[in-house]
Amino acid sequence: MTLTDTLHTSFKTVVSYRIRSLLIILAMALGVGAVVVLTALGDGARNYIINQFSSIGTNLLVVLPGRAETSGSFLGAVLGQTPRDLTLKDAQLLGRLPQVRRYAPLNVGAAELSAANRLREVTVLGSTADLIPIRHMQLALGNFLAHGGEHTAQIVLGAKIAQEFFPRSQAIGQRVRLGDSRFLVSGVLSSQGETMGFNTDEIVIIPIDYAQAMFNTTSLFRILIEAKSHSDIEPAKQAILASLRQSHDGEDDTTVITQDAILETFDRILQTLTLAVAGIAAISLIVAGILVMNVMLVAVTQRTAEIGLLKAIGATSGDIRRLFLAEALWLSLVGAVLGFLLGQLGSLLVRIAYPQLPAWAPVWASIAAIAVALFTGMLASMLPASKAARLDAVVALSKK
Amino acid sequence: MGDQAVYALNDINLQIASGEYVSIMGPSGSGKSTLLNIIGLLDKPDSGRYELDGKLVTDLSETEQAKIRREQIGFVFQSFHLVPRLTAAENIELPLLLGGVSPEQRQIRVNNALNAFELKQRANHRPAELSGGQRQRVAIARATIMQPSVILADEPTGNLDHQIGAEVMSLLENLHHQGTTLIVVTHDRELGGRAHRQIGMRDGKILTDQFHDTH
Ligand SMILES: Nc1ncnc2c1ncn2[C@@H]1O[C@H](COP(=O)(O)OP(=O)(O)OP(=O)(O)O)[C@@H](O)[C@H]1O
Ligand SMILES: [Mg+2]
Known about the structure:
The complex is a heterodimer of chains A (400) and B (215).
Chain A: H1 3-16, H2 18-55, E1 60-65, H3 70-78, H4 88-95, E2 100-115, E3 118-127, H5 131-134, E4 139-142, E5 154-157, H6 159-165, E6 175-178, E7 181-189, E8 194-195, E9 198-199, E10 203-207, H7 208-214, E11 222-227, H8 233-247, E12 254-258, H9 259-302, H10 304-312, H11 317-353, H12 363-390, H13 393-398
Parallel strand pairs in A: 3-10, 5-7
Antiparallel strand pairs in A: 1-11, 1-12, 2-3, 2-6, 2-11, 4-7, 5-10, 6-7, 8-9
Helix pairs in contact in A: 1-11, 2-9, 2-11, 2-12, 9-12, 11-12
Chain B: E1 21-25, H1 32-39, E2 51-52, E3 55-56, H2 62-72, E4 73-77, H3 88-98, H4 103-116, H5 132-144, E5 150-154, H6 162-177, E6 181-185, H7 189-192, E7 197-202, E8 205-211
Parallel strand pairs in B: 1-6, 1-7, 4-5, 5-6
Antiparallel strand pairs in B: 2-3, 7-8
Bound molecules: adenosine-5'-triphosphate and magnesium ion.
Magnesium ion (MG) binds next to helix 1 of chain B.
């Protein structure tokens, strides 16, 4: 019996046992579809978070006061030490390091903003002009703390704040009061929405000097640093730590977080999560495989007389075995392809429902799901097929 | 009970010439089907030799025996043994399919067979939609589609009424007239009597072996 004829004959068999075939195909399809949709979700979530995190800057390092390690801070607490503050001078020093392209000191606080008979509390960032490029912010209008203008009382408004306070008129050039000081609006941020839980549309930015005066502090909340290139990130981190250690009398009392390391960690965690979810979904494929085995065993029993007949008219054991294997192959193949399509449809629906989530199933997951479905289907039909092939022709023929 | 061996066949010595028309008769359980199955290579004797066309076939491999069944032997059964989900034409096609014959050739030969057995109108009907006589005609068409040298029929008229049974027998006898060796197992003395050679069996043994000159 030729391969084409075997495949064709078993395909006709699959079609003629319609309900039975549909059930197996459905089971297979649900398994494959589940793997595809769940990996799409997992990978979508991973990409979403990575994108969000990448969008806050490039080759970014964040310097913050205090040791991150619990043992260090515990020891510090025992010895009665408090970590030394980061100062503007520290920031300037770091800005001169060869690996550093630019830096932005950062203070954060809250104050009341009033203008045009309106009043509301806003989050205030104090920084310098380089905050904009470092944090990948965009200005919709005007400019931001023009270089050299750091000591003038300028203010940049978040998109939503500008819209709230100056819905009709031009915001640039307007005078506003923030806390007890007056500021001149020099720019408006373009709307960016929320990134990493921080909404830049509802902040105002003022020069760092004014912020420190307003919040009555000389210490910085953070120093944001952009390394010159990706390969400069790690050297920059070491240079920053060394530089701060030196200026802090040999104390390691600062922490440097690199965007890269965080990205990598997120990537790893979410990749593992996706794999785990795919693995759980793949269990349904094994269940489908067991179903295939049972259904094929029933088929062998049901068709015993037919198998005897085939042997009587000259089928070899191999022919019988291949016919049953091909039947299982069709069931798994159709199930897998249908499942793949179902999974793609499911991912599409997820993307429509949650446009922010890039829920595309990774290619490896789709291929793996289809391959596992085919493999389990074939493996599960091995036993029924060889049972059929080994049937004694005379005994089989006498079955009704 | 079980410790006494039962011999389905015992001490059989039989030679059938090419082109003969043989009927095998005997009471139920006398071993007629077993003998037919051994001749058709469906069953293996526990001991003894069987030569087909002068070739010892008892020791051939399973695959080689399947090939002989496919090409040289045609089986016709009492219960027809048609595949219920296949049409008449597809049932007739089965041996060609197993033999790896090309689709074009298959179509030609199946068409010829449908015409020869007056099944043209029923080509696309499933066995459940056919009468007993039509079913057996499909079975005979299937048994002859590979042009075997031997036709083995085990009570081919057992499930048919007298009239239809006689028609089926004449179809088989036509094959014999064309040179095919025909071996028919039957309970029916009248039908059995039509064969040129009649073998009577009892308890796994051949009791009588008579040649008749009919017609
Ligand atoms: N699978 C089997 N296992 C054991 N004994 C069997 C088997 N098949 C048949 N026999 C025995 O072999 C003997 C011959 O059986 P066989 O089927 O050849 O008889 P038969 O002449 O064809 O009978 P019938 O006219 O009823 O078809 C009987 O005694 C039967 O019980
Ligand atoms: Mg019998």
